[in-house]
Structures are given as structure tokens and as C-alpha cells.
């Protein structure tokens, strides 16, 4: 009987509500001073749907509409700072916002990040050089509108422009659409968005609340942002003995792994992140035989930093570990740094060699930088890209190298595709994707054919002189497979040779609680051995796995502020992410307030009447329900 009742309840619930399947929320982040992001109330926010057709239409939501609060549906062209700040300031009449993301990138640029990324945690402070602090010389991200760093007291979700969104629009036009300025009649179409965040105020507050939880299963309210840096060396380095290595000189070749956008977990970072680390991986692949066969006087340390978007988490941690002799080498072993930043190359494009003008005032540093640039120019000869220096004194663009310069003057160059301001029109947005890098495929290709198709973007990304035709083909193939895996489909047959499908699905989730670690055979001092699945032979489903010996290592990418319990630090990143309950969204029809009150009143009336009748029947039960009985003794 109970199962039948449950089935009927589910059936009724489905008739009342239409649940949203694809819904990506804006979530709450906190740092040393404040909180940013979005959240709903504890029970979720409910509002009458209103599709915003233009900025002029805002008056209905903010002032004249008779049925507040409103749940505003925004086309992405209206997802601007101007409109969002007006909605924020009128939040008493705004229950939430759902942004419909188009299937193709917008023509105009859009960046919800700041105009001066990582402004307060780089090397350019008032103490280092006041003329270069706070992007005084170059505004790196002029399109940045800062929306990602605002606090909204209502939920904001991203929706796909698909059939589900059409159902929402149709519900609005059937029940809520304003005709000739007249108010729509009940019932009205409404939406509920649930994204309640557990953490409030700032990082110090949420970490303190984490510490005072005494239950056996503590309910944490926030987590420090972090993951793992990945590094590998051209020669094996003893990772067991930490600290200085006598006679060891390393050149750090670096790139960042992470990215972000306004909405949680939609951060492809095609140009801001992927272009750099894929280029560095391709360079490591191209130089593998050279570095193995030649006796180089320096070791290349390929380093991939996590969390750089959030005040240089990964690079600041590595520098801290080097200073504390908790890394395989220390800063005395670092000869120079070569960092690959945004290099979303297009045909006939230019690469720019950026260096730090302050540290170059030191003659020895300046000589090493000039020598490094000279070698880079020589290596670029014959390629289909030109290389230049900016030609005037300007600070480094936002880069991991800045954290090394905070520790000491180190020679270094940052390679970018821009001379001054970013050429990336979608910096740290959901539109910094494969489409923006012009990664496209001929129609009617299967996923496997796309994986093997050498795109024009992969051809432009050539980082070394072409060798024999066969080796050049395999170089292009590896680049196109990496771009496909990180920007199109991570769970593919090429990636599955290395890891299971469960890990492959999370390949592009850059900031996460733990990395997709492969099963380890054992961990010696000089090499790391790990098991990979391998490929399946033709006509077989059994993979031929094998063990790989590598110098690849993981090191912690967690801000030192959390080890030091310095949650108000100005030297290190203090970013945390709030925890939340399941994210949900649904639409339904809502009756008028008067009808709801009438229904409530009738219900209360029926309840009181039933109580009175119950009392009456109970008090008169002996009279009402007594039956005539013969006495126990009778006289005849």
C-alpha cells in the first residue's frame, strides 16, 4: 500500500513541477576580507518568471510589476554589469536570475574578471615599485567588468539554450507575458532556485566554524581552494632528500593549469590556460629526445601550477616550499624561469617576450635575460610566428613568475600573445573555449575521427622546427589530441589509455579536492612508477596495461596561509569555497495571493468545524450511541 501511495505522490509531484536538469550556479567564495558570489535562502528563492527583453524593460521588475519578487530570465547579451548591478540594488523585488547561455560565442567581448588580475598578490607593490603597482602602467584586462567579484544575495544560474529553456519561455508567454501594459492574470508561472551556501562573512570566520565542530561527522562549512602542482624534470632529481642540491642548476619552464568563470565548473580557459600548458606539453614532447641524448648543463623543470587565478596559489606554495627546504630543490638551484602564458596563436600572429624591468636593473640579471631572449629568438627562426619584445618599460603581465620575483631577483621571461593589454576578449569567462581558439571539425565526423583530425589551431601551435615528415605528423597529432581532450571531449579513447572513464570525466575540472591519481606501483627516490590502462588491440576489449617510469611528481598546491593559520594574510592567497546542499531548480504555476488566502481560510474553517463536531459527538457519545437494553432482573 505504501509503495502505491509513493508512486501516486511522485505522479502528482511531476504534474506540478518541471525540474531543471542543466543548471550551473554561481557559488560563494571567501577571502581574508569579504565574500563574493551568490546564494539562495535556506528554503530556496521563489519568484514569478519574467523574461527580460531589454534594459528598458527593467522597470517592470524593479518598480511597476505588480507581482514581485521576480525570477529574471536573461539572454546572455543582457548579462552585463550595468543590468546586474541594477538587479542587485533592487534585490527586494528580485528573487533570482537565470542566464541563458547561447550555443555560440557572442560577437562582443565579455570578461567577468577584474581589469587588474591578482593585483595585490603579485610582485608589483608599493614597496617593489610604486609606479608599476595596481596596473598603473598597463591595464591588462580592459574588458573586465568585475562581476565575478561581486556579492549577490540571490541565486544566479546558467541555463543551456535548449528544449528545457524553451519550456521556460513558453510558460512565461502563456501565463506571464505583459500585453498592452496590462498585468497578467493568475495562475502565473514561477521558478524556484535552491543554492544555499553554508559559509558567510570571510575565510577567518568560516575556518573558525570548521574548527569548533565537535561531532563525530563534522559538518564543514568551507574548504580552502587548492589541488596539486605537477612537475617533471629532464633528469631525475632525488625527491626524498628535500632542499638544496649541490651542483644542480634548473630552468623552470612553467604554465598554469586552472581557470574560472562566473559560474561554477564552466571554466574551459582555452586561451588563458589550455593554450599555455598544451604548448608546454608539446615542447616537452618535442624536446624529449634532445634532452635525453644531449648532456645539458642545466635541468629543465617542467612545472604546471594550480590555482593561479586565485592569487597564485600553486606558485606561491612552491616558492614557500623551496624557501623552507620542503621541495626537491631550493631557490639557489633556480637559474631562470621561462613561463608560457596566453598563446592562443592564430595565423601570422606574434609572440611577445615580457620581462621584469625592476630586476633587470641588476646587471647580472639583465645579462641572463638578454641571453635567454637571444636563445629564444634563435629557436623561433623558421617558425610561422614572429617574436618581439614590447620595446618599452612595463611590468610583467599576471604570471606565476611574479611570485618567484617576490622572493628574489631571478632572470626570467614570460611568453604571451599580447604586447600590452590582453588580446583575449573572453578572459576567465565561459566563452574562452575551443570555439574561440577556432578549433573546428568538418561536418559529420565521429568523435574518434575528430580526435585524429589535425586542426588548423594545432598546426599553428608548432613550437620547434619541423623534423622528418613522420615525426612532424605525430607532433601535430599529439597537439590536436590534447586540445580535443581538454576543450572538446575529455572522456575519449586517447585519454582512456592513461586513466579510467571516471577520472577522464573530471580532466578539465582544474580546482578540485584531489587530482585523478593513477595507481602507483611503488615510489623510489628518483622516479615515479605508475600503471596505465593502455590501448585495446584490434578486435579485443581487453586493454594491455603497463607500468611507466617517469620523473613526473605532484606537489601540494595549497596556500601557505592555511598551514600557518594566517587567514587574514596579505602575502598569500586566502580563498575558500563555501560548501552547499544539492543544487536544484524547478518551475510551476502559482495561484494568486487572494486565492491562496481563501484556500487557507476555507481549510482553517473546515478544520475548526471538524474539531467542534468531534467535540460535540465525543461529549454526547453515551446518548447518541447508547442502545436500549433490558434490565438485569425483570418481574413478570
TrEMBL record:
GO terms for cellular component: plasma membrane. Keywords: Glycoprotein, Membrane, Notch signaling pathway, Signal, Transmembrane, Transmembrane helix. It is found in: Membrane. GO terms for biological process: Notch receptor processing; Notch signaling pathway; protein processing. The keyword Phosphoprotein does not apply. It is a single-pass type I membrane protein. The chain crosses the membrane at residues 597-617. InterPro entries: Ncstrn_small, Nicastrin. Pfam families: Ncstrn_small, Nicastrin. This is Nicastrin. The gene is NCSTN.
